[in-house]
Amino acid sequence: MAKASKSKQFSFSMPNKVGLLSKITTAIAGTKVNIIAFCAYEMKKKAHFMLVTDNNVKTKKTLSKIGVDAEVDDVIMVEMSNRVGGLKKVADKIAASDIDINYMYVTVGSSRSAMGVFKTDDNRKAIRVINKENKKK
C-alpha cells in the first residue's frame, strides 16, 4: 500500500566542478536541515540538482547564501512497498487516471519501504489516486 503527500523540491544547476556536492551538503547540514530526497547528475559540464528537505525556509536561505538561485517546485512524496511490483502499482494508478509523470526518482534503504519523488501534470489528482485504496481500509 502506497501513501502520497505533497512536498516542495528545490531544483538548480551550476557549473560542474570537483567538490560541489560536498559544498552543498556541508552548507545544508550546517543548518541542521535533513535532506529527505536528493537527485544529482552532470550533463554537458553542468551539475543539476533536485532535493527535498525537512525545512524549506532554511534550505532556501542556505542555498541563497552559497550563491544558488533555486526553483521551488510542487512534488509528491510517495512511500511505497520495497517489493517486486511496488513501483508498478503506483505507476499503474497514475496511468489509469490519465496523469502524465514529468519525472520521478526513487530511493530504497534497508527497510521495507521505498521513497519516491514524483512531478506530474496534476499532483493533487495523483495524490488522491495513490491514496485511494488507503481510505477504503
Walkthrough of the structure:
The chain is α+β, with helices and mostly antiparallel strands. The chain has helices at residues 20-29, 56-65, 86-96, 123-136, and strands spanning 3-15, 35-43, 46-53, 71-81, 101-108, 113-120. Strands 2-3-1-4-6-5 form a 6-stranded antiparallel β-sheet. The protein is elongated and about 45 Å long.
Assign an overall shape.
Answer: elongated
What radius of gyration results from the CA coordinates?
16 Å
Largest sheet: 6 strands, antiparallel
Distance between the termini: 10 Å
Instruction: Name the helicity range.
Output: 25-40%
Brief digest:
This protein is α+β, with helices and mostly antiparallel strands. Helix content is 33%, strand content 42%.
Q: What are the key terms here?
A:
137 residues, elongated, six-stranded antiparallel sheet, alpha+beta, single chain, 33% helix
Element layout with pairings:
Layout: E1 3-15, H1 20-29, E2 35-43, E3 46-53, H2 56-65, E4 71-81, H3 86-96, E5 101-108, E6 113-120, H4 123-136
Antiparallel strand pairs: 1-3, 1-4, 2-3, 4-6, 5-6
